[in-house]
Design a protein that fits this description.
The protein is of the alpha/beta class. The chain contains 14 helices and 8 strands. The protein has 2 domains: 162 residues, Rossmann fold (3-Layer(aba) Sandwich); 129 residues, Orthogonal Bundle (N-(1-d-carboxylethyl)-l-norvaline Dehydrogenase, domain 2).
Length: 301
């Protein structure tokens, strides 16, 4: 089977860039989103508009869902205008949502029960990189199905990692994001401590990035975002909070001892409650600084 026509459901920050690159590379795309302005933007880039998920899937060789969570994927599948019941012969679904691996496996079984083939495909990197065609994909599923979707993935990204069975790709994404998000909080706390004690951020980062303490947040994310005064979302804090909650849930399901996950989630919860959710994840630094106590300020005088 060769994929030529794609139904794309979920045209947000990541999905919109992915659609543009599919079209740029010769695929015919029909897009659906609950937000009319996102559909209009996809049409402006060359996609066809669909009024329902079922319309997006009609006649497609491949259906891609790029939605926030499993509840949204279920709705796109099962609602009266959902695509699952109208499956064409040899239909293939590629779910790109960041979800719990057990949910990925459940959705795969649901698709199989309805006669669909299914690929679990988690997406890495930022919306900016999605627009540039530089996504990282982690895929799980049957070997033949993964081979079928490969040209579409190559149109949207520059790195494809085969995770093996369904559920493994979702696990890779959550493991990666867990470490990135805990590191994000740790970086913010370290810089906040230094600032409270009179260090400049440049001096702190000079030392950190010259040792094994360095990470993607200290080298790239913080210097290019919050430390420049730019908190426009490369990766929104509210999405980080969602992925961290999945990781904490998965830690419990896997029976792994954890000392960092739940406290980190509490910090992201606080940041979202205080209005930082739509900003870049690095904006958690501003949340910490806004909550600095008067007693700590007295110490540095």
């Amino acid at each position: 089977m060769t994929v030529k026509t794609i139904g794309f459901i979920g045209l947000g920050a990541m999905g919109s860039g992915m659609v543009r690159n599919l079209i740029k590379n010769g695929f015919s795309v029909t897009g659906f989103d609950l937000a009319p302005n996102l559909v209009e933007a996809a049409v402006a880039s060359g996609a066809q508009a669909a009024e329902t998920p079922r319309d997006a899937a009609a006649g497609a060789d491949l259906v891609i869902t790029m939605l926030p969570n499993a509840v949204n994927v279920d709705a796109a599948m099962d609602d009266p205008d959902g695509f699952l019941a109208g499956a064409p012969g040899d239909a293939l679904l590629m779910n790109c949502s960041s979800i719990n691996p057990f949910e990925a496996m459940r959705l795969g079984q649901k698709a199989a029960d309805a006669g669909w083939r299914y690929v679990d495909c988690a997406v890495g990197r930022t919306a900016t990189q999605a627009a540039e065609g530089k996504c990282l994909f982690m895929i799980g599923g049957a070997a033949g199905d993964k081979e079928t979707v490969k040209p579409a993935l190559e149109a949207m990204g520059d790195t494809i990692i085969d995770g093996g069975e369904i559920g493994r790709a979702a696990t890779l994404k959550i493991v990666n994001n867990y470490l990135a998000l805990v590191s994000c909080l740790a970086t913010a706390e370290a810089l906040a401590i230094g600032k409270a004690m009179g260090l400049t951020t440049d001096l702190a980062l000079e030392v950190i990035n010259g040792t094994t303490a360095r990470n993607g947040n200290t080298q790239l994310n913080f210097p290019n975002k919050v430390l420049r005064g730019d908190v426009t979302p490369g990766f929104p804090l509210m999405h980080g909070r969602k992925d961290l909650s999945i990781a904490v849930e998965l830690i419990g399901q896997a029976g792994v001892a954890s000392y960092l996950g739940r406290p980190a989630l509490e910090a992201f919860d606080a940041a979202e409650e205080q209005g930082h959710g739509g900003n870049d994840c690095s904006d958690i630094l501003n949340m910490l600084e806004n909550n600095r106590s008067p007693a700590t300020e007295e110490i540095t005088r």
